[in-house]
Amino acid sequence: MNLSLKKCLISILQAMIVSWSVNILKLASEFASSADVASVVRRIERFLYRGLVKQHEAARSIIDALPENGRFILTMDGTSWQLGKFKYYVLAVGICFNGISLPICFTFLPAHDITSFVEEIGIMERVVSLIGHGRIECLLADREFGNSNFIKWLQISHIRYCLRLRENLFMRKEGQKKGRKLREVLSSLKLGESVVLHDVWLM
Fold it and tell me: Could you give the number of structural domains in the chain?
């Protein structure tokens, strides 16, 4: 990068820290420049369009900046984005640090509401190649990632996981024929309370 591009990158990073956002309009408002916001937005867009910072290089920089001997709690999440006329689903895996998740891998998928286990396994394989199995403490993910094939892959890969479940999910103890909804099983809990189900439950 030449000096102008380096200064632009530094200003983007500083604006992200100040605004606590990746919204280009918010970044432009906090940009270290006397130019008007519309001009700064175009400058940021031109910088991003160049694709100067590769995803794996950015991920490596994040990982190298974190404590060397630490184990990582990972997050997996997805969100729908619209870029002009095009709609995308962004699947991302991040590292938990100081109350936020730092994205290290993400992929753009055709617009839909749910991912396949192939896509979920694919992005996790990229994460493992970056940080290794040994540094993964566990994976946290939302209800949409409860695919049985993905869970089997996590188990085979010896990656601990904590996935949210839908409250209307039917579950039963192993050996019993009748199932109950999760909200019924946990109906005695008050807000903020928790319980560990030690038996084997089938869902």
Answer: 3
Closest-CA residue to 90 (of 119, 47, 48):
119
Domain that holds residue 105: 54-164
Say what the pTM is.
0.74
- Cβ(91)–Cβ(111) below 8 Å: no
* Together in a domain, 58 and 87: yes
**What per-residue confidence (pLDDT) applies to 184?**
92
> Do both 41 and 61 map to the same domain?
no
At residue 109, the pLDDT reads 83
Same domain for 175 and 136, yes or no, is no
pLDDT digits (tens, 9 = 90+) for 82-97: 777 778 888 999 999 8
Task: Report pLDDT for 193.
Answer: 93
Q: With a cut of 50, list the residues of the chain below it in pLDDT.
A: none
